[in-house]
Request: fold
Amino acid sequence: MKSSLKIVMVGAPGSGKGTQASRMTKELNIPHISTGEIFREYIANKHPLGNKIKEFIDQGALVPDDVVLEIVSDRIGREDCKRGFIFDGFPRTLEQANALEQVSQIDYVINLDVPEERLMDRLTGRRTCKFCKHISHVSIIGDSMICPDCGGELTIRADDVPETVRKRLEVYESQTKPIIDFYRQRGKLIDVNSDQAPDKVFSDILEALGETC
Reply:
């Protein structure tokens, strides 16, 4: 593979971007940059932008581009990104994709494809621990609201309730999905079936990158 890899993960909410990006960062030794985690950090630290970010997230809407780009530009300018990075949750619009092209040239875009009905099941069944932040799913823990990792209390995040999930998928369809064509036209897109076991998805990603790099 290349000595430097700049990768973008795309796919609808619940497609497994975070899970696969976390595994890839260990395999490729480059940082996993999740805009969602950065947003939650800003909110938790009561950063001036935090309240604005929270309003949009709670409504299932996208955070404005100027706010996202300010955060992203700072992050990829740090020392640990010199060998590359893996974006998870950015870019989400054509405007962001175009803006990113001016800041950094992306090598590959991994498109994780999952049927919409499976996405609803994945997202509305998630339960997040208040303490260790571990995410569980009702398909495994049933009605339990106790974290299997630390014994803490499980909660349903505001962006995982059914009404918000539907809104998030609608936003993805109208505003984010077009970037798939954007990157396909540039020969950077790698399609991966993400409606499989996580281990199989991961091996498919590595195989595709190995064939392309």
DSSP finds ten helices and eight strands in the chain. The CA atoms of residues 56 and 63 lie 6 Å apart. The beta strands are 5-10, 32-34, 84-88, 108-113, 126-129, 135-137, 154-155, 189-193. The mean pLDDT is 89.
